[in-house]
Amino acid sequence: MKSKASAHPGFMRIDQALVHAKSKLSTSQSDTIALDAELLLGFVLNKSRTYLYTWPETLLTEAQHTQYEQLLAQRLAGKPIAYLTGERAFFGLDLYVSEATLIPRPDTEILVETALEKMAIKNDQAWSFCDLGTGSGAIACALKHQQPNCDATAIDFSQAALEVAQKNAQRHQLCISFKQGDWFQPVIDQSFDLIVSNPPYIESEDPHLNQGDVRFEPETALVSGSDGLEDIRKLIFQAPMHLKANGWLILEHGYQQAKPVQALFQQAGFRHIETRQDYGHRPRITLGQM
């Protein structure tokens, strides 16, 4: 008895589709061509990457083939995989993303690890944190997932970004208070044990803005004045008014910004100032205690 798939002899098998995709993407700037092909085909079929190699003879339907070709064309034009599939993994959580949010990156997990380390000192005591410029909610969701009893607040200026963050919190059944506004404005009378942020920190004339994934990401979440420190300055000098005694401020920044960021922490009266490296051994986050 013939399978339903054999009724479409003109369409590619999974293994043929992958070979075709790798060939098509060979002229792209991506250095993960095979992975791109697998992730996009898995997305189209709603199957895992393991499935692709377990059932390589499975035929794509006409609709699946058309969708795959469209996605490959967009990837060839440079559009990030995360925006094409609408998802990205971060700190063990599958998160929704959209073009209204930055794409969560592995290096930001250093910020989450550091925040959890500092808050572990409180043991079983309830503690509070505020994630400024939450975007997709990656940092807030990761912290709340690891520490369910903490009091979580997340703020973003973009309503579209907040909608994505709220979807992520609902997806993982996390209770987080989301607020819309400019930095500390929505929590003007509140204070926290911990304030974290991955703010914009790219210089307005930085040539990297025209390269790679950042070409497609929201500029307001990337660029911060001529020196890249405009928003970081605001956060550092306003944070003391919103930190409890012995509270911590942890900020992500550019790899070349460690020294000026440390100086800003010192000027604002922080102590125990420290910069930590990302997975590529570049200075990536700076923290200080109030």
Write the layout of secondary structure elements.
Elements (H helix, E strand, L loop, with lengths): L13 H12 L7 H13 L3 H6 L7 H15 L4 H5 L1 E4 L2 E4 L12 H11 L8 E5 L5 H9 L4 E6 L2 H13 L5 E4 L11 E6 L32 H9 L4 E10 L5 H10 L3 E7 L5 E7 L1
Parallel strand pairs: 3-4, 3-6, 4-5, 6-7
Antiparallel strand pairs: 1-2, 7-9, 8-9
Helix pairs in contact: 1-2, 1-4, 2-4, 6-7, 9-10
Keywords:
two-stranded antiparallel sheet, 10 helices, 290 residues, single chain, alpha/beta
Could you give the order of the helices and strands? HHHHHEEHEHEHEEHEHEE
**How many β-strand stretches?**
9
Overall structural class, as computed from helix and strand content, comes to alpha/beta
Largest sheet composition: 7 strands, mixed
Number of helices: 10
Unreliably modeled segments: 1-9
The best one-word shape is elongated
Q: What is the CA-CA span between the terminal residues?
A: 73 Å
Strand content: 15-25%
Radius of gyration: 22 Å
Rounded average pLDDT: 89
Helix content: 25-40%
Strand order of the largest sheet: 5-4-3-6-7-9-8
Oligomer: single chain
What would your notes on this structure say?
With 290 residues, the protein is α/β, with parallel strands linked by helices. It has helices at 14-25, 33-45, 49-54, 62-76, 81-85, 109-119, 138-146, 159-171, 230-238, 258-267, and strands at residues 87-90, 93-96, 128-132, 151-156, 177-180, 192-197, 243-252, 271-277, 283-289. The strands form 2 sheets. It has a 7-stranded mixed sheet, sandwiched between helices. Helix 9 (230-238) packs parallel to helix 10 (258-267). The longest helix is centred in the first third of the chain and has 15 residues, at 62-76. The model is unreliable at 1-9 (pLDDT under 50).
